[in-house]
User: Fold these one by one.
Assistant:
Number 1:
Amino acid sequence: MSAKKLQYERPVIQKLNVGLMNKFGTRTEYTPLTHIDGNSVKDLLGKFGSPLFVISERTLRRTFREANRSFKTRYPKVQFAWSYKTNYMNAVCNAFHQEGSWAEVVSGFEYQKALNNGVPGNKIIFNGPDKTEAELKVAIANNSMIHIDHLDELYLIKEIAVESNKKPRVAIRVNMDTGVYPMWDRFGFNYENGQAWDAINKIMLNDKMELVGLHSHIGTFMLTPSAYGMAASKLSHLALEIKKKYKKNIQYIDMGGGFASKNTLKGSYLQGIDASPTFDQFAESICTAILNAGFTETDLPLLILETGRALIDESGYLLGTVVSNKRLSDGRRATILDFGVNILFTSFWYDHKISPAQEFSQYTEDAVLYGPLCMNIDVIRENITLPPLKRDDHVVVHSVGAYNMTQWMQFIALRPAIVMIDMEGNSHIIRKRETLDSIEKDEIVPKYLKDFKL
Amino acid sequence: MKLKKNLALSDSGFVFDPSTGDSFSTNPIGLEIIRMLKEGKNANDIKNHVTKTYMTDDASFEKDYYDFVNMLTKHNLVEGGEKEKN
Amino acid sequence: MVKKKKINIAVTGLNAIDSPGPGVPVIRALRDSKLFDVRIIGLSYESLEPGIYMHDIVDKTYQIPLPSAGKATLMERLKYINSIEKLDVIIPNFDAELFNFIKLADTLKKELKINVFLPTLEQFEERHKSNLPEFGKKHKIKIPHSKLIFNIKEIPSLRNEFTYPVVVKGKFYDASIAYSPEQVATYFNKISAKWGLPVIIQEFLHGQEVNVTAIGDGKGNTIGAVPMRKQYITDKGKAWSGISIDDKNLMNMTRKLIKSTKWRGGMELEIIKTSEGDYYLIEINPRFPAWVYLAVGCGQNHPEALVRLALGQKVEPFKKYDIGKLFVRYSWDMIVELDEFEKISTLGEL
C-alpha cells in the first residue's frame, strides 16, 4: 500500500464541566520529555530495562555550584556536608565529595560508607539519636565531629573519652522555636527552656570533650527562609555567650538542612518550582543573621550546611512504562505504570511532575496513575492531566533524586537499576537491577523445611 | 448501538446534546467515530476504516473503541442506552 | 479635541457574578478614560465568566491556565496571546493569580514589553492575614489583637489574652464568631480541615465596617483613595450597595499606610471603626475591589491612573472625590448563542 497511514491516537471524549477549570495553556505539564542530557528515554529503557532511575551529573554539579555560590558570595567561611541519607549511592556521594562536600551521616552504616568512599574521619559529621558505643568509639578514634542529641549520649561520650584518653570533638544539636510549625523539638536540646545552655555548660566545665560546634536542623521542606535566619541568630547568640563565659570560640555553626526542593507538596496551590525559595534567599537569611550577630571578623565561625534534598532532587528522574489503561467505575481513566510507591516513596507527599516521553496532540484526559503493586495504596498521582497514553508508552517522573534511592522498598517487585549520565552525556550504571539472588543470598532455610510434597 | 439523532457536532470537536444541554469535547478520531456512528455504521465498518487510515491494529483499536463507546453510553449520548449487537 | 492614545490592555476577573471579580468594573473605568482609546483583552479561567460574553465591554477573550499550573505555563500562554494582541498592559484582579504575575513582572517587561503595576512580593506576602499582626507592628497600624494557633490544646489558654466572643479565621478565607472555648474548638476543626494551619484567633470588635479603594505609586504617595460604607450586604457578605463617605481619619490612615509600605498598585482596605472612634485594619486586598467603579463615579479613575503608572507616566494625586455617591449593583441575564460557548470551551478564545 502506498498511502502513508496517519498517527493513531486513542479516541477520547470529555464532558465540558461548567465550573471546572480549563485546560488552555496547561501544556507544560505534559510537554513530552524525550531526552535526558542527550540520551533518549526510549534508548535508556531499552538498554537498562524499565523502570529505571536516572541521575544527571550535569544537573547535580550545576545545582551544587549554584548553592555554593549563593553562600560563598555572602559569607567568608562556608562548608557543605553531603547528607548521606538523602541519597547514598556511592557515585552520588563521590560526585559531591569531588565538589568539596564533607560527609554528614546518621548511622554506623552510613559512617562506614563515608569512610569506604575515602572521606577522612575528621571530615565526617556524625548526627542522629542512635549512635552505639562501638560506633562512637570508632568516630572518636577517627576524630570525627559528633553531634550530641541527648544527655545519655553526652555521658556515654564522656566515659569513652576517659577510657580512651582521646578528646572527642563534639557539638550539640539545638532545637528551638523559629515560628514554624511543627516545631522539631524531639532532636537535641531546647534553646528556649535552657536545656541547650545547660548541655553546653556540662561539656565546657569538663575538659574531657572539646565543644567545636553548634548544630540545628529546624525542619524539612522549609518554605520560609526567615525561619533559618531566626535559628542562625539563636545559635550565634549561644556561641557569643560561650565566648563571654569561657573565652572560647566555637569553630562552626551547622545550620543542618531542610531547604525545600522544586517539587510540589500535595495540597499546595502553587507549583513547587514557583513557591520554593531560591538558595539565594536561604543564604541571605542565614548569612545576614550570623554576620549581624556581633562576632568580630576573626571570630566568625565556619558555616556548615547539610542540605540534601534541594541539592539532589532535580538531578533524579524515574523512567517507566505504561502497563495498561482501564476505566474506573465512576468513569475516570486509570493508567497503570510499571513503577509504584515501592520505589517512588515520595509520591506519598508530592504531586510529582510526570511527562510523557513521546509526542502527542493537544488532547488530554484526566487520569489516576497507579503503580503495579497489588496494594490499594499504590497510587502515583491521584489526579493528573495527560495525553491518551497507551500500553508500552513511556513516562518520565521529574525530581526524584532525594530520598527515593534510600527509602525505596524491596516489596513485591525487585528494585530497578540506577544510571548516571556524566558531564559528556555518557551513561554509567551505578547500581545494578536487583535479581532474585540479591534478595535471597542472605536467607537461610532450615534443613527440615527444604523439602515438601504437594 | 445508536447515537442520539439530534446530537450537534462541530469540526472543533464540540459535541452538544440538545436533549440534556450537556456539552462535550472530543479529539479528531473521536469525532470521526461519532460521525460514522451517526451515519449508522457498525463496529466492523469503523474498525476497518480506522485500521486502514491510522497506524494501529485490530486488537488495539478494538479495546479503545469499546472503551470509547462505553464513555458515550456513560455520557448518555446513546439512544435508549442499549448495547450494540454485533 | 485631544486624540486618545490607542492601547491594548488585558484584564482578568471577568466573573461578574454574585460574588464578583473586579474585572468588569475595571474595564468600565478604562472605557471611561479621556486619555486612552482602549482595546480590552479579557483573560478568563472558566467558560462561563460573564465578561467573556459582554462584547461591548471585552473585545476578545482568551482562556488562561489556572494559577496552580505555575508561572511557566502562564508565561507560555501570555506569549501566545501577546503574539496576536500586542499587549501594552495587564491588570490582574485575583488574589490567587497575583503571586505568578508578580514573579513574571520583569520577564513580561523584558521579553514581551508588557507593563504591569503590582505590589512587590514583599508587600504581597506581609499583608497576608496570618502576617497581619507583624504588619501592624511594623507600620504602626492598629490591628485587632490576634494569635495564631496550631493546636486545639492552645484553646483553653486563650482566655488569658481574649475576652469572648472571638473571631476564628482561616489562613485564606472563612471567619466565624465563637462565644466559648467549645465553639472555638468546633470552628478550629472545621477551618483547619479546609484551609490548613494555622488558625487565626482575633479579638471581636464592635463597630462599623468601612472600606477604602486606593492606589499607591510605589514611592509612598497615595494617588487616589475613596472610602465607602456598605449599605446592603448579600448573604455572601459582598456589598450590593455602598456610599462614599467623608472621613478624614480614615483617609489619614490610608495615606499613612501607603506611605509606610510604599504600596505599589491598587488595593482595598477593610477597616473597623469602633464606637470609641478607633480604626482597626482587618484586611488588605492587594488589588482593586469589585466596587472600584464607585471611585470613578466620585471623580477618581483609579484603573486609568494604574495604567498610566504602569506605562511609567508621572501621575498627580487626586485631590478630591464626591461624597454621598452611591453604587447599587444589579444582575442582568444575557442571552448567549451556543456557538460562542463552544468557541471559548473548545478553542479557548472568543
Note: The longest helix of chain B spans residues 58-74.
Number 2:
Amino acid sequence: MPWSEQTVSKPLSELEVLALAALARLGPDAYGVLIRQEIEDRTDRSISIGSLYKALHRLEKRQFVSSQLGEPTAVRGGRAKKYIRLEPQGRDALEASIRAVFGMVSGLDIGWDRG
Amino acid sequence: MMRVQPPRIAARLLAFFTAAEDREMVLGDLAEEFRVVRVPRLGERAARRWYWSQVVRSIWPLFSFSWAQEGWGMTGLRSDVVGALRLFRRAPAFAFVVVLTVGIGVGGVTAVFSVVRGVVLSPLSFQDSERVVALWGRTAVYPQTPLTVGDYNALVEGISAFETVAGSWGNSASLLGDAEPEQVGVGWVSPSYFPLLGVQPTLGRTLGAEDLNAILISHELWQRRYGTDPSAVGRQVKLGGASMEIAGVLPPSVDPNLTATGRHLTDYQVWRLMPPEWTEGDDRSIGWIRSAARLRDGVTLEQAQAEVDAFVLRMNEGVLERDGGRDLRVELVPVREDLLGSLSRTLWIMLGAVSGVLLIAASNVAHLMLGRAEERAGEVALRAALGGGRTRLVRQFVVESGLLALAGGVLGVGIAWLGVSLLLRMAPQGIPRLETVHVDFLVMGFAFAATGVAALLFGVLPALRASRADLAQVLGERRSTPGRRQQRLSSGLVVAQVAICLGLLAGTGFMLRSLGSLEAVDLGFETESILTFALEMSDNGGTLGEARSKLLAHTDRIEAIPGVVSAGMTNRVPLGGGLFTGDYRSEDMVGSDAEKHSASYRIITPGYLETMGARLLSGRSFNGEDGMGVALVDQTVAERIWPGENPIGKRIELSTLGEEPRWAEVVGLVAPMKHTGVSIEANETIFIPMLAQAHQQNFRYVAVRVSGDPMAYIEPVREAARSVDATAVLARLRPMSTLFDDSVAPTRFAMMLLAIFGGVALVLAAVGLYGVIATTVLRRSREFGIRVALGAVREHILRSVVVSGASLVLYGIGIGTILSLWLGDLLSSTLYEVEPTDPMALGAAALVMGIVGVLGAYLPARAILGVDPASALREE
C-alpha cells in the first residue's frame, strides 16, 4: 500500500514535495537560498520566498523537517541562517507521495521517456 | 559586491508582512541570494527588480499564512487585527466616531466624484467625441450664433483640418398617423451628421443622401410610442403633415448633442435630412445652421483654429453683407465644453469643497488617534522596552487605523450611494448627462483610494510618533505638561480645519447672497399663477381674417374656463429660450450714418402683457384693431434712441431679416422684461401685434393667468384648444414659476451642495476643536489641580484655556479668509450681483465659525474643569 497515514490525512502539496526532495538532495546544510536554488535549477521554476517559507512552516509543524538557527553572516546583512533538515517522517511522506504518483502513471504510454 | 544593498523599501515592506520570528531567515536569505547569486548573474538593476518581484509575490503567502496559523504566537497580523478589534470593543464610542467621520468624508467625496465622472469625465456617447468641435460664429452683435449657409459651405470646402463637417437645425412638429397625435422635437440634419458622430441605428437603416422622406427615431420614442416593437421600422407616419417612413431607431442614451444651442439641451425624438437646397449657395442673410466638425487625425484644436481664423479673415474681405456683421470669427469649441459650459467648473469646485470635508474628517480622526496613542504611550513604551520591535508597534497602529478606515470606507460607499440618489433627485433640470451618473466599481475604487489616503493621513502619523516614545521619557512626561511638538501638531490640525471650514461657509454665503439677489430681481413680469404652453396647429387658417379669428377663438375659449383670469399669446415665452431678433432705428437716425440697433422682437396678442403682469409705463397696450402700423417698445429701446423724451407717438423703423423695413408708431412704453434669463440684463425689446399677421405666425405660446394651481388647468385648457381645432397639440406645458425655478436652479443646486458640505464641515470642525481642547485640558488636569489647590481662581484657568482655543480659531479664520477669497474668485462666474469679496458673506461665515469655535473650546474646558481638583490629582 503506497499510502502512509500522513498522506491519507493530508496529502503533500506539490511545492512541499519539491521542498522535501530538495532537502533530501542537499543534506543537513540546507537552508532557504540553497533550497530555492535547487528547485529552480532542477525544475526551471521560480518559487517566491514567501511560498517556500509557508511550505517549510507547514512541514515543520507536521514534523517532516526540523530547523536550527545558524550564525549571522555579513553577506546576509547580519542576519542568521536557519538550517532545515529532513526528518525520517518527512522522507517517508516524500516516498509515499512519489509512489502514489508512480503508481498512477506507470504503464502510461505518452512518450515521456524521451525527456 | 558586499556594498550592494537590496532595495530598502522592498525589504521594509517584506519585514512588515513577515512574522518577527521568521524575519531573520526570510530577509537574510533574500539578501544573501541577492548579493551572492543575483547581482553577479543579472547585474544590479535586474537584481533589484528580482528582489522586488520576490517581495510582491511573497506578500500574499506570508499574509495568509500568518492569518491562518492557529496558536502561532501573537506576533502576526492576525494578532494585530484581533488586538484592534478588542480595542474597538473596549472603546466603542471612539470607534464609532472615527468610522462615522471617515464614512461621511469618504461618502461625500465619492458621491460628488461619481457626478463629476458621469457628467464631466466620461466620454460622450459617440465616437472619439474629443475630436468633434462645435462651430460657433461670433460677431460684434452676436456673441454666439449659428452659421449662415454661405459661411458653412465655405468652411466645408476650405478647411483641410476638418475631416467632416455637419450641419443641423431643429423645430418641432406633430407626429400623427399611427397613434395619438404628439408633438415631437425634430432635428433636421445634413447627410454627414450621423457619419460624423459615428452613430449607427440599432434597428433599421441609416439615412441615405436622398432619403428625404424617411426619419430616424430616438430609442426613447421607440420605447414609449411603439413599445419597442421592431415592426415600427418601415411604418409610414405623418410628420408635420408630410408622409414619412420610419427608417431606423437610434441606440439608447446616444447624445447627439451637436444640435444643442449654447447651454440649452434639445430633446429631439426624430431626425430627418435637410433638403439639399437649404444648404446650397452663399446666402449670408441669416445664421441658422448649427455646425460641427470632426478634426482630421493628428490635427490639434489649436492648429485647426489657426487655419479657420486665417481662412475666415480672408473670406470676410469678400463678404459685403452678413447677418450679425462682416467681422465674423468662427470659434471651435470641443463638444464637451460646448455642452457643459461653466458646469464642469462648478462641479470641480464641488469636488474640491467636498475634498476639504474629507481632509477635515481625516485630520479629526488623526487627532483622535493621536489622543489614543498618547493614552497608550505607557503601554507602548513598556512593550518597546520589553523588546517589541518598532516595526511591530507601527504595524499595530496601522492595522488599527486601516481597520477603522475600511469600516469607514464601507460606510462611505453606502453614504455615497444614498448621496448620489439624493443628488439626482434634487438636481435641477438642464444639467446634461445626469443619466450617466451612478456608483459602480470605478467609483468604489475611488472611495477606497480616498479611504486609503485618509488612513495614511490619520494612521501613520500617530503611529510613527508613538513608536518613537521611550519608556523613561513617557513615564516622566506623564508628570509634566505635554511636549511641544505634540501640542503644535494638534494646534496645526485645528487651524487647518477651521480654515477649510470657513472657506466652505464663505462659499455657501456667496451662493446664498447670489440666490437672494436672483430671487429679488425685478423680472418685469410675474411668475405666480401663470401657465404657459406652446400651441401647435397643423395650419394657420389660410387668410389673415381666418387665422385671426382662429387665434381669438383660442384665447376666448381658454378665458371662458372657470378660474381663468386672462389669456394671451406670444411668439416666445420669457425664460423659455429662443430669440427672434431684428433691427430698429429712429427717424433722426435715418439722416445720419448711424448703424441700426438690434432688438428682440416679441409678437403678442392683446391681453398678453396683462396676463404676464408686465408693467405699462405710459401709453396703451395693443387692442384687437391694431395693424402693423403700431408697436410697443420697452424702456431700454426708448432710452437708447430717445433719451429723456416721451416715446409715445414717435415713429420707429423696424426691420427683420428677409423683410422690407417698415415704419410703425409707438403707442406704449413697457418696463423691461427679462426674457433671456434671470441673471442676464433685459434685452432691448420691441412688441408687435400678432393679430395683424396671424396668418404668418409659426410660433405660438399661450400664457394663461389662473386662480390657484396652474397645473390644475392643463386638461381644461387642452379641451378648449381641441374644441377650436381638433389637430391642435399642446406642448411644453409649464407654469411660469417652473421656468423661473429652472433658470435659477444651477445656483440653487450649487448653494445647496455647498451648504451641506459647509454644515458637515462645521460639525466636524467643532468636534475636532472639542477634542483638542478636551485632551489639552485633560493632559494638564494635574497642573490645573495644583494651581487650584494653590488658590488660583477656576474661572481664570477656564478663561486661559478658552483664550488659547479661541486664538487657534482666530488663526484658522485668518487663513480661511484668504482661502475664501480664492474660492470666491473661482466661483465668481456663477455669482450674480455679489462680489467674490462680499463682506457680508465673509463676515457671517467668520462669525458662525467664531461662535462655534469658542463654544467648541468652552464646553469641554468647563466640563472638565468642573471636576474636583483633588480627584484629578488622585488620578495620577
Note: The longest helix of chain B spans residues 736-779.
